[in-house]
Predict the structure.
Amino acid sequence: MHIVVVCGTNRDGALSRLLTQEVAESYRRLDCTVDLVDMAELPPETLSGSAYQEQPKATAALVERFLKSDGAVFVIPEYNGSFPGVLKLFVDMLPYPEGFDNRPCAFIGLSAGQFQGLRAVEQFQGVAGYRNAHLFPRRLFIGDSYSKFVDGKLADDELTDRLLKQAEGFANFVRQIGEKANGC
Ligand SMILES: Cc1cc2nc3c(=O)[nH]c(=O)nc-3n(C[C@H](O)[C@H](O)[C@H](O)COP(=O)(O)O)c2cc1C
């Protein structure tokens, strides 16, 4: 099973990026292959109006990597009570309908404040659901982000355990959807 973990921001020093590494590790422990698709890899030319007609090579390559996923996990930081604009730009670069259509997706919200990325995740789920993704219902929300990492590592055993539980549940979800699609 191939899982793509999306870092939903391009911000230098983002804690979301540290979190994606922990998430990736939890899927590797389940023998999944994992690719980290980071919004920091989206080249600046993606902002050009011409990218909608002809994608820059690096944009197209990132999109291709996303499309290879059997399931996608979005790590979404809360920016101004929503998800980052760069993540929406990436979604707008995905081909229709295969970008999201029937693709299993899981969600993790991260915020510095008390709302734990709930609004960011729910708003992004609205986009993915509109495009007919299969939304994994067990979401994970993390607040007070700056207290959760020490020396670049997640320093909260309970949280590590919750990440693993979500990963186990999502891997089963992806498997079941795959079996249904194959008529099993
Ligand atoms: C542009 C911007 C807007 C933000 N808005 C919020 C917000 O509305 N609520 C909140 O709790 N934290 C907010 N934050 C803080 C982030 O949630 C915090 O940095 C968290 O660690 C996740 O983002 P990160 O992956 O960029 O670190 C904001 C951060 C940035 C850069």
